[in-house]
């Protein structure tokens, strides 16, 4: 099942399926690119950033950016 | 070689490495026009004193904030510099992203695979000689906090040479779109 990264639940895991073109170069330097496994670590309240784990390192991403990343969620 | 720039992503141990390399002669400077500080010092290399600069951490050369802008400007302002790319060995993919960007700009690069002990502890195995073969630049495992690998790093700075990004792509069978054959 596909969902936006911003919609993933705490501790949910998946694989990055699509990143909006305009965003790709911006987050590639953080090791976040299509095909990577990703896990939701923390969601901050009141439209705050999300913290995700990719390759065993944690990165925080603004909710606006997380809206533009599609993840295929594992079940 | 007139200058050595220490570059890397935030929190990879650049400053620890810098303090080790520059010793007590480190001095703080303020980069004009910004509020972001950088530090410079001197390193003795082949009997000559070479300026070494601790560049603010940046994820890529496509700046997203003020500190990253400073980092990119400093790199662009030092066309003759040798760049020591400091990578957190436990987050090697991210680090290689920036390293490749610096190589692509035509700078002579040497890679410090820092936090080698952390990677080892996390059961992450990196074949440094193979990585060196692929990149065509020296790759030295280091543990800056304990001073491990620093001697080799300094000795090998002079081996840093510019490499064509196409050569690296060829050696891994890839192309610019990020797909691999």
Look at the helices and sheets of chain A and give the structural class. Answer: alpha+beta
Relevant CATH superfamily of chain A: Ferrous iron transport protein A (FeoA)
Tally of structural domains of chain A: 1
Count, helices of chain A: 2
Question: Class of chain B, according to the CATH hierarchy?
Answer: Alpha Beta
Number of helices of chain B: 7
Give the strand tally of chain A.
Answer: 6
- Level-2 CATH architecture of chain B: 3-Layer(aba) Sandwich
How many β-strands of chain B, per DSSP?
7
Query: What is the gyration radius of chain A calculated from CA atoms?
Result: 11 Å
Itemize the secondary structure elements and their pairings.
The complex is a heterodimer of chains A (75) and B (181).
Chain A: E1 2-4, E2 13-19, H1 21-28, E3 37-43, E4 50-54, E5 57-61, H2 63-66, E6 69-73
Antiparallel strand pairs in A: 1-6, 2-3, 2-6, 3-4, 4-5
Chain B: E1 3-8, H1 14-22, E2 27-30, E3 37-45, E4 48-54, H2 66-77, E5 82-88, H3 92-104, E6 109-114, H4 116-121, H5 128-135, E7 139-141, H6 150-156, H7 165-172
Parallel strand pairs in B: 1-4, 1-5, 5-6, 6-7
Antiparallel strand pairs in B: 2-3, 3-4
What does this structure look like?
The complex is a heterodimer of chains A (75) and B (181). The termini of chain A are close together. Chain A is α+β, with helices and mostly antiparallel strands. The radius of gyration of chain A is 11 Å and the shape is globular. Chain A has two helices and six strands, in the order ββαβββαβ. Helices cover 16% and strands 43% of the residues of chain A. Chain A has one domain: SH3 type barrels, CATH 2.30.30. In chain A, 29% of the residues are buried. Chain B has 181 residues and is an alpha/beta fold. Chain B has a single domain (3-172), classed as P-loop containing nucleotide triphosphate hydrolases (Rossmann fold). In chain B, 35% of the residues lie in helices and 23% in strands. Chain B has seven helices and seven strands. In chain B, strands 2-3-4-1-5-6-7 form a seven-stranded mixed beta sheet, with helices on both faces. The longest helix of chain B is centred in the middle third of the chain and has 13 residues, at 92-104. Chain B is globular.
């Amino acid at each position: 099942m596909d969902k936006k990264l911003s919609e993933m639940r705490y501790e949910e895991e998946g694989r990055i399926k699509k990143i909006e073109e305009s965003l790709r170069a911006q987050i590639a330097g953080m090791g976040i690119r299509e095909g990577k496994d990703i896990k939701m670590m923390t969601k901050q309240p009141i439209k705050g950033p999300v913290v995700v784990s990719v390759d065993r390192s944690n990165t925080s991403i603004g909710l606006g950016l997380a809206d533009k990343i599609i993840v295929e969620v594992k079940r | 070689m007139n200058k050595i720039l220490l570059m890397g992503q935030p929190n990879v141990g650049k400053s620890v490495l810098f303090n080790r390399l520059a010793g007590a002669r480190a001095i703080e400077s303020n980069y004009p026009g910004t509020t972001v500080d950088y530090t410079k010092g001197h390193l003795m290399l082949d009997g000559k004193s070479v300026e070494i600069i601790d560049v603010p951490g940046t994820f890529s050369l496509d700046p997203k904030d003020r500190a990253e802008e400073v980092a990119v400007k400093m790199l662009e302002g030092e066309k003759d510099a040798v760049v020591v790319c400091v990578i957190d060995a436990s987050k090697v993919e991210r680090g290689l992203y920036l390293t490749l960007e610096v190589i692509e700009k035509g700078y002579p690069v040497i890679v410090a695979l820092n936090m080698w002990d952390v990677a080892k502890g996390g059961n992450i195995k990196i074949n440094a000689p193979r990585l060196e073969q692929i990149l065509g630049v020296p790759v030295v495992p280091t543990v800056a906090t304990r001073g491990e690998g620093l001697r080799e790093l300094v000795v090998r700075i002079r081996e840093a040479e510019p490499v064509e990004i196409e050569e690296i792509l060829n050696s891994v069978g890839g192309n610019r779109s990020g797909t691999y054959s």
